[in-house]
Here is the input.
Amino acid sequence: MKINVSSLLQLEHNCRNAQNYAELKYLIVNETNKLIPYDQAVLLVPNYRGKLKVESISDIQAIDKTAPFVQNIESVSKKILKRNNTLHVLDYEKEINSYEKEYFQSNNYSNLLWMPLKIKKDDMEFEYYLILFKKEEWNKNQLDVCSHLSSSFAYFLYGSRKCKFRSNSQKSWGSLYFKLLFIILIAAMFIPIKLTVLAPLEVVAKDPFIVTSSLDGVIDEIKVKPNEFVKKDTLIVKLNDIEYSNKYLIAQKTLDLAKVKLKAAQQASFYDLKQKNSIDKLKAEVELKQSELEFTKEQLEKTLIYAKKDGVAIVHNPNEWKGKPVVTGERILQIANENSIELKIMMPVSDAIFLEDTTKIKAFLDNDPLNTWEGSITNISYKPELTPSNILAYKITAKFDNLSDSEYKPSIGLRGTAKIYSHEVSLFFYLFKKPITSLRQLLGW
Here is the structure.
């Protein structure tokens, strides 16, 4: 096999001019294939404990750490480090166990090439490792090129991950500078600071009128638009009335028939005593049919729902309600006073802090992020609930402070972020509250 020198130079040129570490990783595991054919490439980097972890895989954007391929690669790399940490083709019979051998061969990874990418600069050693898989055997020319690339890749990786802050042997923690810095840092941890938490909020109506379905049926049309002002006794919802109209017509005809039977019995009672005895029964039947007619009329009238107060209609996309079946008591929309508003805050359980009624908050609305609204908590739910984002959170209700003094009032439906204040704690607790909570949940102390 002849190696294309221009391809080699182009690959090194691209790696040398990579804009960042992520681009360089991509070039190493994907572009090398243009020079040396292989089926899969894997780049490994040691973590802080020296254990090799998969950093990048060719043709794969996101790495699943639990995937069998990734776990087998990390397991094999651990064994290679101990036995033969040089550039070589892996001997499946001697260097890995039967399960790993069977896994690789079943996936057509018959030949594995181990490429250490090592470089030593400024008394510091950097280590990376590249694994190349292919079905065919590796020839000598390919191994020579890989040996050349290993030093080039190591240098490029060193340059992209190089830290600007070098260790200086003349400085140590025993110096006065670090002693003072350490004392100031410890003292700062005792500075009192208000414990706060951020949570999403929404401007909602205070004590709105809930419009519900008065019977089981199907919605024909929502007669109002979102945020439309409606007056009392305005038609706002129309339910499908075909079934109830038919019931009303049947009840009316049944009543007419009962009245005819009663009238016939009354006329025949003058000469037939048996007909006279059935008059009371027929009168009762007429009264029953009259009650059924009135009941069906009431149901027919309930297919038209009217507003019972003035206010703004709060409804989400009226077109989606057309043809939707509803049951008695199901909420359809709200009618709210746009001047009577409050804040609904959903505080995630993971961010829960000690709160009391009248606790102060600051509201930052998305449409006006430069201004804040002051408020205070009026109610806190004792039981968390799931939000539309599937996050378990406590529902907090808060009122605006001095809302009447403001010329501009937030409209219902606006969203933003609430900053909730709790009691004072030390800066240490403020910074490490979540780690401490997670550690206690893990260890149970």
The chain has eleven helices and 20 strands. The chain has a mean pLDDT of 84. The chain has three domains: 5-161, 209-331, 337-432. Residues 242-268 form the longest helix (27 residues).
